[in-house]
Amino acid sequence: MRRVNGSPPPWTDDPVLASNRFTNVYRAADRVSQFLIRHVVYEGDQRAEEVFFRTLLFKFFNRIETWREFVASFGVPSWSSFDFERYATVLDAMLDRGRRVYSAAYIMPSPCLGYERKHRNHLRLLEHMMREGAPRRAARARSLRALFELLRSFPSLGGFLAFQFAIDLNYSELLDFSEMDFVVAGPGASDGIRKCFVDTAGLCDGDVVRVVCERAEEEFGRLGVTFQTLWGRPLQLIDCQNLFCEVGKYARVVHPDVPGLSGRTRIKQKFISRAEPIPQWYPPKWGLRIPSPGAGAEDAFAPTRAAGLCSGNASSVTLEQ
Q1: Cβ contact 253:16 at 8 Å
Q2: CA distance 125 to 114
Q3: Coil, helix or strand for 53?
Q4: How many CB atoms lie within 10 A of CB 52?
Q5: What letters, b where the CB count within 10 A reaches 16 and e where it falls short, cover 122-155?
Q6: Domain ranges of the chain
Q7: Predicted TM-score of the model (pTM)
Q8: What is the DSSP letter of 62?
């Protein structure tokens, strides 16, 4: 938040946070999510099939550089002009040049669709989803859980990925479910939960995430913590799911004696400080009012409150403006 507000580095005196890469507290504020929302979901044809196609094409690889390679080759990717071999050849060429195609953020299992190279299987899976009417069925979903179940019905999309993809599709105008409706705890969150609680009273991990999220404001008040909202938007279930993952990662360094589920004791990716501004762009339907750079922190980041979204007209601005 200090970085977004224009403060120079360093932004923290915590050596673990300062030297290792973590995702943002707010999932939608993370670098890759910000790119997805601004340059994938809301850039291009807004028909259901095109929004679905672009979102899933990006998320299968989850790497900004891969998306930019598609754009350089075809313009904004489109289902109406999709050609499997042309897209696959772009990825073949990237790998042949020694460039990564997939993000290291999480493992993407390969569907068994007849190809040796994983990226070709994923392109074929996306083509299969489109031909099976997934965009139309997604647009008719009655709940976030129903959307999740639809996505999970396709090959190789387990619970964690199906939930993440459901959240990404829900950023669009295609859907408008509350992020408090439903949550799936991924492996990283389950690891973090084990490091936080000796006893969860028999609750499943998803219920632990919900209890923590719903009690957050009460606990902040009890502990005297002023926690910054996302310009009026409080923590959602998807944010708390991510937070458990990051707490588990943080604990690898500061509490290596607490094994959790993974038993890992180091963080692979290091943080490199860059002082350039971070553009902020969120779904217009959220109605967030984002201040200009240099606004006082007390104005830019309101303390947690029960009001939820800020009032006023929906707006989406960038700090570059």
Answers
A1: yes
A2: 11
A3: helix
A4: 24
A5: bbbbbbebbeeebbebbbebeebbbbbebbbebe
A6: 1-30+177-321, 43-170
A7: 0.89
A8: -
From CA 96, how far away is CA 50, in angstroms rounded? 29
Whether residue 309 contacts residue 198, with contact meaning beta carbons closer than 8 Å, is answered with: no
**Residue type for 156, please?**
S
Alpha-carbon separation of residue 187 from 21, 80, 106, 254, 262 (angstroms):
18, 36, 10, 20, 9
Q: Which amino acid is at 249?
A: K
Which helix (DSSP H) or strand (DSSP E) does residue 135 occupy? Answer: helix 134-139
Q: Residue 309: is it exposed, middle or buried by C-beta count within 10 angstroms (0-12/13-18/19+)?
A: middle
CB 312 within 8 A of CB 289: yes
Instruction: Note the pLDDT tens digit of each residue in 118-149.
Output: 999 999 999 999 999 999 999 999 999 999 99
The pLDDT assigned to 313 comes to 30
The neighbour count for residue 6, using CB atoms within 10 Å, is 15
294-303 contacts: CB < 8 A, separation 24 or more?
294/5, 294/6, 295/5, 297/1, 297/2, 297/5, 300/1, 300/4, 300/5, 300/231, 301/1, 301/5, 301/228, 301/229, 301/231, 302/228, 302/229, 302/231, 302/232, 303/226, 303/227, 303/228, 303/229
Instruction: Verify cis geometry, omega within 30 degrees of 0, for the bond prior to 284.
Output: no
